[in-house]
Specification:
This protein is an alpha/beta fold. 60% of the residues lie in helices and 15% in strands.
């Protein structure tokens, strides 16, 4: 009987020791994880406003210059419906508070191949103010990968179409179609270019040797002096024209001449318009069909009269002696 009780007591002692050891291990693990993650350290909160968070969730780590210093405790839309921003609440260790200042910036990054998100914070400069609990931390919106992929698809489609067009043009060139195809595939063009190059080489050799008119002109100091003098004269003439000197210069630079010409052109235009409408003597003369027919008739009768006078002058010439 005593032996059974002793065995049960030993079993209870073993169970108790096991539970105590388990609790101790659990407490040690909690403290270890807490110290590693900063759970048990003093913290303060910072606010970040972003247009999009690209899947950032509560519990994501916060890293300062790559070192984990806190975690994300909230990702919420602003209370105002008209405000499109998303507010991200960061809980950061106070040990690094002096390193996060007004010019620090927060951004969303990606960890590993699985794409886990984290908030990265840059170090601030010492001449800026330290951010306190509840202050707003500047941020940079993450890249919109979906939009980037959509634009990449559009660019890829454009490149694909351009490649097809280039292939089509290349095939036409290889088949000798079009101007470029004829130039590439026609051997006569090569021989013509070769002849032109040979002629140019011969001319260059002659100029180098001092043969021909061009080489003489290049070596003739008198020609160079005359050319320089001519250029000076041209420059002097253009300068005088620009300054309004001489008849041509006054004609070019005098606005009164332009105004007179413009006024004269306007008057001529009005006169022509009146003539076309049949106004005035000249307009009536040009546009009156009856007057035109009368003039034709008078001209015809006058011509008949002159012919008759030539044929029968005695009929019109009578001499009487008193």
């Amino acid at each position: 009987m005593k032996t059974r009780k002793q065995a049960e007591k030993k079993h209870e002692i073993k169970v108790g020791l096991t539970v105590v050891i388990g609790i101790a291990i659990l407490i040690f693990a909690i403290f270890s994880v807490g110290n590693q993650q900063g759970i048990l350290s003093d913290r303060y909160k910072l606010r970040v406003l972003m247009s999009r968070v690209n899947g950032l969730q509560t519990g994501a780590p916060v890293r300062l210059a790559g070192v984990r210093v806190g975690s994300v405790v909230g990702v919420e839309f602003a209370d105002d419906v008209q405000d499109p921003k998303i507010e991200v609440i960061l809980e950061v260790d106070k040990k690094v508070q002096q390193r996060i200042r007004e010019d620090s910036r927060a951004h969303i990054g990606t960890l590993g191949l699985l794409g886990d998100k984290f908030v990265g914070v840059t170090m601030g400069t010492l001449d800026k103010s330290v951010l306190n609990n509840g202050d707003l931390l500047n941020s940079s919106d993450p890249i919109d990968l979906e939009k980037l992929l959509d634009e990449g698809v559009i660019v890829f489609d454009g490149l694909k179409k351009a490649t097809l067009d280039i292939n089509e043009i290349t095939n036409k060139i290889n088949k000798g179609k079009g101007t470029l195809g004829l130039m590439v595939n026609d051997p006569r063009i090569y021989f013509d270019l070769d002849k032109i190059l040979n002629v140019m080489e011969i001319l260059a050799n002659k100029v180098t040797k001092g043969e021909g008119t061009i080489s003489l002109l290049l070596d003739d100091s008198t020609f160079s002096a005359n050319l320089a003098s001519s250029l000076k004269n041209v420059h002097a003439i253009s300068d005088s024209l620009r300054k309004g000197q001489g008849s041509a210069g006054k004609f070019i630079n005098n606005p009164r001449i332009y105004n007179d010409l413009s006024e004269t052109t306007l008057r001529l235009s009005k006169i022509i318009e009146k003539i076309e409408k049949g106004d005035g003597t000249l307009g009536k003369t040009i546009n009156n069909k009856e007057l035109y027919q009368d003039m034709i008739r008078v001209t015809s009768e006058l011509d008949s009269l002159i012919r008759d006078v030539r044929r029968n002058p005695q009929r019109y010439l009578k001499v009487e002696i008193f």
